[in-house]
Structure formats: C-alpha cells, structure tokens
Design brief:
481 residues, mainly alpha, two-stranded antiparallel ribbon, two-stranded parallel ribbon, 4% strand
C-alpha cells in the first residue's frame, strides 16, 4: 500500500494492514469526493493562471478531473480501499488516467489545507440544507397558527396548568425558537464560508499562488487570514455541531409535547396513521414512535458535540491526526437533525387537534386566577394583596369543587368588597386569552403580529439561502466547464 501513499518515499517498508485499517478514513471521506475534485479543479486553474504549471499540464489535469467528476456522477468512480483516504484516491486515479502530469496537481498545497477546504464545503452545503428544512417546519407551524387563533388550550409551567393560551400562540413559540436555530446556522455559515486552500501544511508556500482566486472559484467569501490557524481550525465544525445540538434540543422538546398530547391522559391531538406504529400484542395501540425517535436521537447529536469539544481541547497547533476524527460526528449530527426536522414537519402537518378536549382541559385548574388578581389590581388593590385574596378564593373553590366563574357575586364579595358584577366579564377562558393583548401575548391580535414578523424573517432567510445556493451552483458550473 505505502508504494501509493503520498508520503511513501520516506519509508522502506509497507504499512501493516492492521495499521492501514486503523488509520484509514475512507469510510467517512467518501462523502467528500465531489468537494475534493472541485477543490482540485480550482487549485489547478489558479496554478495555471499564475503560470506555476504549464498550460499543457494544467489542461490535462483539468480534463482528467472533469472525467473523474463524470465518473462520480455516473456512479462509476472506483475507490481503492487499499489507499488511506479519498485525497490519495483522487490523485492516484488522476495520475493513472492522464499520466505523470497528475503528480503535479499537489503543487503548492498539502492534505492539511486540502481536507480543511473539502470539509468546509461539505459543512457549508449541509448547513444550507438544514436551514431549508427548518424553514419548511416553520411554515407548517405558522400555517397551523393562522388556523387556530380561536382554539384554546392550557398553558403550562412546571407541567401544571398556568394560564389559558391559544394553540396559535403555542405554535408560534416553537416557530420563533426554530427561527433562532435557522438564524444561528446562517450566522455560523459566515464563519464556515472562508477558504483555507493555499495554506499548505501550516506555513504557507513558496509558490506565487493567488489564494483569493481559489477562494472565489469555490464560492467562498474570502481566504482565511493565517495559514497555521487555517489548517488547525475546527471551530466551524464545532459550531455546526452546536447549532445542530440546540436544534435537536428544540425538536426533542416538541416531540415530548406531541407524545404527551397524543396520550389518553391529554388527548389534545391525534397523530396521523402515517406517523405512528402499532403493537405486536395490543391491537388497540397507536404509538407515537416517530416523535419518540426524534426525542431519542437528540442525545446522539449532543454526544457528537461533546466528542468534538473533547477531541480538540488538548491539541497544540497546528494539524494533529486526532482531527481526522472530526468528520464523522459533524456529518452525523447534521444528517440527524436534517432527518428529524423533515420528520417533524410531516408529523405536525398531519396531526389533528381535539379542540373540545383542549378547551375542557383549559377550564380546569383555576387557570383564570391570575385574571381575577389583575382585576383587583385594576380596582386599586396592590398585587401582593390581590394575590392573597385570589388564593383564598381558590382554596374555597377547591373545597366546594367549583370554578371561580361559578361563584356568586355574594361569595366573591366575601373575599373582597372591591369585586363587582363586572368580574364575570373577565373570568371566561376565552376572555382571559383575548385580553392578553400585550406585544407577544396570546390574544389573536398579538398572534397576528407574531405571524407577520415570523413570515418576514422567514422570507428574508429563504432569499439568503437561495442566493448562497445560486452562487455555489454558478461556481460549480464554471469549474466543470
């Protein structure tokens, strides 16, 4: 094997097969083939334009790389498992295809900057794909919100009934934190989208290369500033994994709610048959397995982030072989959140709300108690005293097994002389929801504003993603001729 290794000239003997297997990254590197070829195309075009390579050799290399790209597209590209990584595979395949000129491709670069560039391009594309998926889920949630502004459910704190809210506001709450996730990915995209190619092993190169040209050809914003930092930096990997982890946490939270809401104890929703499974022994069962798996897979995404942080925490500058292990965790975490987000969109879009059940649940637990306290405050009673008055009324209602709205005016006055007949206008659950008209509140008017803001943010983000994808497509078209 070592006869074909890029570094084999230094060694007399061949690498032991078990060492090759232990050090090989081919099982993961395969996902980088396209990016490795595109990076090589940009590199050789730059070498040609800077007259570092002769025109004839450059054109042979470009033609050969485009042939390999065509073979990749047709699923005909042969990957030799006896070679240690995909970068060696591409260079060896190129040399076998076009002859000695293929050996000139590596002029002015190292595998260190090569792999960093490939991985940045991979993560860059994966991030845009995840953001598109999150945007779709947000659209589903906003669509539900537009149709559920008069649908009422209990709002919870500590998993106890707290205050009545609209289903629409609850959906928008999920929408806004997912929007932060998408924006966080796009913020990270700016730091991902810089080009280390040309940094070589760590100290740069003696060849008169043009790193800006290479960066532009590959659709990057700019070249990285420091060659040593360029080959050792994996912040972009960790940041992508962090963004994935937080998204996974939010998806897990949604999944947990759906599992609870679909239970007989809650009965707020019914999941579509397409997103559920049955039991092998209990014929009546309809299990929320997809939601449960989304919840379960979030742990793996968080684990991938911890793995990356732990791997990097003790490494000196610059490149260390430990960093070969950066790809699998970030690839897996991005792939997992993409799958989970797509599945969540299917679940949420197909679920059905049990409106009467939710309203009946919201009518329990003295969920309008805060409104009675606010009523007394409006009459001039300090809030802390109003809180005590209503607490006494709730204790009385518990003993009587009645709701606050079921008390007579005489009974109400037994707790405070400030209570008048108009109190009965503020106690119905529907009124409790619509009176919360503050910015961000649960009233239909407030939710309208939230929907408007969310859609504006969504459209801006979609436009930006389209622009980035369009720019990259133009770069690929240019490189592939």
């Amino acid at each position: 094997m070592s006869k074909k290794a890029l570094w084999s000239g230094r060694f007399d003997g061949d690498m032991d097969d078990s060492v090759l297997e232990f050090t090989s990254s081919l099982n993961i590197d395969r996902k980088l083939v396209f990016y490795d070829i595109m990076g090589s195309l940009a590199h050789v075009i730059m070498l040609r334009d800077r007259k570092i390579l002769e025109e004839e050799d450059s054109e042979e290399i470009i033609k050969g790389l485009r042939t390999l790209l065509s073979e990749l597209h047709d699923n005909e590209l042969v990957i030799d498992s006896d070679l240690e990584d995909i970068h060696t595979n591409i260079e060896v395949s190129l040399t076998e295809l076009i002859g000695p000129a293929g050996g000139k491709l590596h002029t002015g670069r190292s595998r260190n900057d090569q792999v960093a560039t490939d991985l940045r391009m991979y993560v860059r594309d994966a991030v845009l794909e995840v953001v598109n998926s999150v945007n779709l889920l947000i659209k589903v949630l906003v669509d539900i919100a537009q149709n559920t502004q008069r649908m009422i459910m209990p709002g919870f704190t500590h998993m106890q009934h707290a205050q009545p809210v609209s289903v629409a506001q609850h959906m928008m709450a999920h929408s806004f934190r997912l929007s932060r996730d998408a924006d966080r990915f796009m913020d990270a995209f700016e730091r991902i989208n810089v080009c280390p190619l040309g940094s070589a092993a760590l100290a740069g190169t003696t060849y008169p290369i043009d790193r800006k040209l290479t960066s532009d050809l590959l659709g990057f914003r700019r070249p990285t500033e420091n060659s040593a930092d360029s080959v050792s930096d994996r912040d972009f990997v960790i940041e992508a994994a962090f963004c994935s982890s937080l998204l996974a946490v939010h998806l897990s939270s949604m999944a947990e709610e759906l599992v609870l809401w679909s239970s007989q104890e809650f009965g707020f929703i019914e999941m579509d048959d397409l997103c559920t499974t049955g039991s092998s022994i209990m014929p009546q069962k309809k299990n929320p397995d997809v939601a449960e798996l989304i919840r379960g897979r979030s742990g793996g995404v968080i684990g991938d982030l911890v793995s990356l942080l732990t791997m990097m925490k003790g490494l000196p500058l610059t490149y260390n072989r430990d960093m070969q292990l950066d790809k699998e965790p970030v690839m897996r975490s991005l792939d997992t959140v993409l799958q989970c987000t797509n599945m969540m969109s299917k679940i949420v879009a197909a679920m059905r709300f049990n409106e009467d059940t939710m309203l009946n649940s919201a009518s329990k637990g003295y969920i309008n108690a805060t409104d009675l306290a606010d009523y007394l405050v409006a009459k001039g009673l300090p809030f802390r005293e109003a809180h005590g008055v209503v607490a006494s009324a709730v204790r009385y209602c518990i003993l009587e097994d009645r709701g606050l709205e079921e008390l007579t005016l005489s009974e109400m006055k037994g707790f405070s002389d400030m209570i008048e007949k108009d109190v009965f206008g503020i106690l119905p659950i529907e009124e409790c929801v619509e009176r919360r008209n503050s910015f961000g509140g649960t009233s239909s008017q407030s939710v309208d504003v939230q929907i408007f803001e969310s859609l504006n943010s969504l459209m801006e983000r979609e436009d930006r993603v389209r622009q980035e994808i369009s720019l990259l497509d133009e770069c690929w078209d240019e490189l592939t001729g």
